[in-house]
Amino acid sequence: MSAREFRSLHPDLLFVPYTGYADSTSYAKTTFVFTDPCGVDSRPEEDCPVRGTLAYIDVEFGFESADRPTLFMELWGAVFRDSSAPVYCYRTSVEEAGGRGSLKGREIVAHWDSESGFWATLKKRSFPREVPDSARTSYRIGWGEHSHDVAVPNRTPCDDRTNPD
After folding, report:
1. What is the mean pLDDT of residues 9-19?
2. I need a labelling partner for 41 at 20 to 30 A (CA). Which of 1, 49, 85, 113 fits?
3. What is the DSSP string of 65-102?
């Protein structure tokens, strides 16, 4: 879908330089990433319009209890459960700056492809020691050409390739 067609269907979305458009709710932020977004911070959309086509959609959910499914999984979980094993799945250690220092946790990344060209990447980041009941979950959803480049140091494969959690 072209940027012009997308904008005519969704005129109320927020313009985001370097990306395309975004929408936020109390539970999630959705970003629509285009192949030729405006590459300038200080100019309004009229002076630097988004061009190209929709490349993928990012959906990010805030911290929530790790043992409850996210709204995204409630709505889209069947797509992942019914698909074959991920093309790749790995775990890696992560570190984020926190209030009194850094938080040490883990990230799980799994990627699926379908014969129709649909693809999805799940990322789940959690900090079990410092924040035992929380996790941040995000999904990248797209269609067509994409990369499987996963040059991540110190990664280990997921234990069960059909269920990355």
Report:
1. 92
2. 1
3. -TTS--HHHHHHHHHHHSS-S-SEEEEEEEEEEETTEE
Question: Rounded to whole angstroms, how far apart are CA atoms 47 and 44?
Answer: 6
- The position carrying tokens 């005519």 is 8
Dist. CA 63–CA 49, nearest whole Å: 33
Q: Residue 102's beta-bridge partner residues?
A: 97
DSSP-assigned beta bridge partners for residue 39: none
Please check whether residue 36 is in contact with residue 50, taking contact to mean a CB–CB distance below 8 angstroms: yes
Sole residue written with tokens 């220092």? 101
Distance set, CA 80 to CA 57, 74, 91, 119 (Å): 16, 11, 18, 10
Q: 29-77 pLDDT, tens per residue?
A: 889 999 999 888 878 888 889 999 998 888 877 655 444 455 656 665 6
pLDDT in tens, 22-33: 998 877 788 999
Residue carrying structure tokens 């996210």: 70
pLDDT of residue 76: 59
Tell the residue number behind the tokens 């959705």, with chain if given: 30
